[in-house]
Amino acid sequence: MGEGENRPRGALSRAWAVAAKDAAQELRRRIALASVFFFAATALTLVSFAIGPIGVPPEARGAVTSALLWIILFFSAATGLPRAYVREEETGTALALRRVASAPIVLAGKTLFNFALFLAIAAVAVPAFTVLLDWRIEAPATLALVLVTAGFGLSVVSTFLSALVARASQKNVLFVVISFPLLVPLLLSAITATMEACAGGFPAVAMRVLVAYDGAASCAAYLLVRAAWED
Question: Any alpha helices (H) in 29-139, and if so which ranges?
């Protein structure tokens, strides 16, 4: 009984240790971490000047703003999330990490860190979006739920793909080519859900798609990560 209870706790503690290690490495490399937020700030500024609160008709503003938000969130996250496993190969710590933790535990830890990074990006981008584009959100709690649900799926897929391309010669190109077809359903559902949340409704259908996507992506990543990273 006691041994069975300790196994999940031990796995969770090792996953947290991997996440803490990644966080410590990123905090030491402040330039790499700052570049993620600098990209988001630059994109937000350019978008605000390009369309502004009066550059788009009111009836089209919700769709345009929702799409632009997720484009910025995706590309901002894409500058940081794919480094999860690539960093281990570049610094020569991959072999040591394989010896101290199993592939699913490493995946869980790196996904936790990437998810926290995505939430930090969203916490900066969304308030700035509301100010710079005069964006009104009728259901902020629903929008927060959409960001958390879609952000988790984005983190899981990006982390797994990082393990897949970590030892490839053209990592960035390969990541973009593979991630596009996998993330399009997630991003389209996230945009639809954001539009409905801004209008004050609850995106029941889009949320079901996002939850199903998160579950399928998590299961697939768990089952395939050993072949992607250990072999």
Answer: 30-50, 58-78, 83-91, 94-100, 103-132
Q: Is the CB of residue 7 less than 8 Å from the CB of residue 13?
A: no
Distance (Å, rounded) from C-alpha 118 to C-alpha 112?
A: 10
Total of domains in the chain: 1
The whole-angstrom separation of Cα 197 and Cα 70 is: 14
Angle at 180 between CA 30 and CA 61, to 5 degrees: 85
pLDDT tens-place values along the chain, 231 residues long: 444 445 555 677 777 777 777 777 666 666 555 656 666 666 666 666 556 555 556 566 667 788 888 888 888 777 776 677 777 776 777 777 778 778 888 888 889 888 998 998 899 888 888 887 778 888 999 999 999 999 999 999 988 888 887 776 666 667 777 888 888 899 999 999 999 998 889 999 999 999 999 999 999 999 988 887 765
Domain that holds residue 142: 2-230
pTM summary value: 0.80
Radius of gyration of the chain (CA): 19
Question: Which helix or strand (DSSP H or E) is residue 26 part of?
Answer: helix 2-28
CB–CB of 114/81 below 8 Å?
yes
- Residue 180: partners with Cβ closer than 8 Å, 6 or more residues away: none
What gap in Å lies between CA 114 and CA 128, rounded to an integer? 21
Are the beta carbons of 21 and 110 closer than 8 angstroms? no
